[in-house]
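Fig. S4 source data, part A: sequence.
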Amino acid sequence: MKYLLGIDVGSSSVKASLLDAESGTCAGSAFYPKSEQKIDSPQPGFAEQDPQLWYSCAKDAIADAMREAGAQPEDVKAIGIAYQMHGLVCVDKDQNVLRPSIIWCDSRAVPYGEAAFEAIGQQKCLSHLMNSPGNFTASKLAWVKEHEPELFAKIDKIMLPGDWLAMKLTGEACTTMSGLSEGMMWDFDAEAPANFLLDYFGFDHSVLSKIVPTFGTQGLVTASAASEFGLAEGTPVSYRAGDQPNNALSLNVLNPGDIAATGGTSGVVYGVTDAKQFDPLSRVNTFAHVNHAADSPRLGVLLCINGTGILNAWTKRLLGDLSYDEMNALAESAPIGSGGVTVLPFGNGAERVLGNKNIGAQVAGLDFNRHDRSHLSRAVQEGIVFSFMYGMEVMQETGIEIKKIHAGYANMFLSKVFSETLAGISGATIELCDTDGSLGAARGAGYGAGVYGSLEEAFQSLQKRMVIEPGEGEYQAAYDAWKKHLHQAMNLTA
């Protein structure tokens, strides 16, 4: 048998899937932990995770996926890794982790990115980085430098979460062009590391790992890792990417005009372009896509809403731990506009689309005599969709056309209300496919290892599950009311 292993290191869980390389079907899949992975918040706005938890969960998930598939270690021909973006992992010269990872939804680095944006110059940052340094990985390291100087002095390499897991498998500390771009450490003008930003922050250039291609052999599984993970020594790790570029890959979103969306813990709309364009206010961000090259640009314009699945999960617990199917049914029983209940889903850290402000989640319009669980369930999903639309309007300002949205048949897209509201307010057709991040990473690994001769071949077997066309409904009135409430909230917190 010939299997491809995809590992997706998320903030809620770590998932592993085995793809049958010939049929393109999932042979085995598992995730850990079975409840949401803990995010530590030692201070307001902080969000950290212990990388060792990712490691343990990856081992358990791989073991279960291998068992389900009936796979032997030598059956796995290549490994691909997807991971939560923008996280910071610091290791010493012996590859030991020095502190918990500062993950994507942590807000502490905002002032450092804003100061760099002003000091270096907005035009230079935007034209070279495609973004403000913002709250990304480089700015997180600047926080460590100022607040933990003794620890900072011990740092040998900084890594993204996927870089770290790949290092644990192969012993090789390396990263990719796409990875550096998501950390604000890639200069798109020079098509090289952004040394000017490293110099501004006072970072030695050696903290960056060597750069390897996104697709191709990045390292081989060591004997010790093979023993721990139940894999064969010498198996290549041949692909890695941040979760959102990888989600786009998993949906075969690779060329200008293609749009991908996801509704996991955070929500993302991701459009591919061949133009080096940017939002002057950095409300949406531009990164190197998985197939970017200097002579053939492929850039991903990314809208991220932090408070997406995490809000839906919080509401689920609040309503007595209903199942998601029960919540979705409740939402369907309420009218469009949720009877006037409005939810702002911004309760998971600073939101880039709001100019890196953290206004918190808000609920408005509740009438104790009229509203029940169904109105709240629908208002939560509408609030998330409307936040998507708010950001998509910014994406359209940068030249991204939104006519068709590709998404996996998973997470928020399992809800009829969510999918139909997104189609209705955006006017876009939505195509849902049977795939996820771990399967996308497996296909990427197959191409990187030469199991597939092209990306086209890797995605020949991708199956479309459902198509949702824009329908009729009073979505615009509900969105206008939601946006009015958002603008009032923004003014109050200005």
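Fig. S4 source data, part B ends here. The chain is about 35% helix and 20% strand.
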